[in-house]
Amino acid sequence: MARKDSEGYDSYPKDAYDDPPQGPVGVHRGARPWGVRLTPFAIVIIAAVAAGVLFWGIFSGEAANLLRGRVSSSASSSAQVAQTTAAAGNGESAASSDESSSASSEPASPSESASPSEPASPSESSQAPTPEESQQVNKAAAISVVNGTAQDGYASTEAQKLVAEGYTNATPMNPGDMALPGQSVVWYQNDADLATAQAVANTLGISAVEQAPGIGAPVVVVLMQ
C-alpha cells in the first residue's frame, strides 16, 4: 500500500518517548546563576595577577631577597638550637661536677674514719716537740751557753749536748759582768727565736724561757745551780 504524504506526527500511535519530562533536557538547559558564570573569569584574573607578581619578583630581585631571608632565618634558628643544646650540655656537666664536689666534700662515715690512736705516754708527750718548734727551730742560730756556777767546764758539757742534737753554733762562755738570774734560764731576743729557745730548753732540761731583747745572741743559756 502506498504511503500517504499527508501523514504526520499525529498520525502515529503515542509511546513512552512522546511524553518527555518538563523543562529543558540535554543541551537545552536553562540559564546558569551569575556566580557560576563569573567563576572562570575570576580564575583567569587571579592567575594573571599571580603570574605578574611572579615575574615582577624575578626581575626586581625581591624573590632572591625573600629566599635569602628565609635561609638566614633558618640558619639563625639552627644556631639558636645549637646554643641551647650546648648550654644544656654545660649545665649537665656543671651539675655533674657539683655533684662530684659535693660527694667529695661529704664527711666520711664512722666506718671509713680511722680508728683513734692510743694516747701517748707521759714521757713521749714531754719529749715530742710541738708543731711550732718543729716548723721554726733554727739549729744554725748562734747560742751562747753561760756558766753561772762554780763548776768548771759545765758550760762546755751543756754546749756539747746541744751539738749532739744538731745545733751547729753553740758556744760556751763565762758570765763576765753579766747580771745572773736566780735560776737557770734560756733567753731569746725576739719572737722569731722563741721556737729555738724552747727547743734548747727542752734539750737541757730548763723550764724557764724568757724574752730578753738586749742580749748579745739570738739565744742565751744561763746555767745556774
Automatic annotation (TrEMBL):
Region annotation (Disordered) maps to 1-28, 82-138
* UniProt-listed Gene3D superfamilies: 3.30.70.2390
Q: Where is the composition biased (Low complexity)?
A: 82-134
Give start and end of each LytR/CpsA/Psr regulator C-terminal domain: 142-223
| Keyword Transmembrane helix applies | yes
- The annotated regions of Basic and acidic residues compositional bias extend over 1-17
- Keyword Glycosyltransferase set for record: no
Q: Which InterPro entries match?
A: LytR/CpsA/Psr_C (IPR027381)
Give the transmembrane region(s). 38-59
Q: Which UniProt keywords apply?
A: Membrane, Transmembrane, Transmembrane helix
Taxonomically, which superkingdom?
A: Bacteria
List the Pfam families. LytR_C (PF13399)
Descriptive protein name: Cell wall integrity and stress response protein 1
Gene source species: Bifidobacterium castoris
Source lineage? Bacteria, Bacillati, Actinomycetota, Actinomycetes, Bifidobacteriales
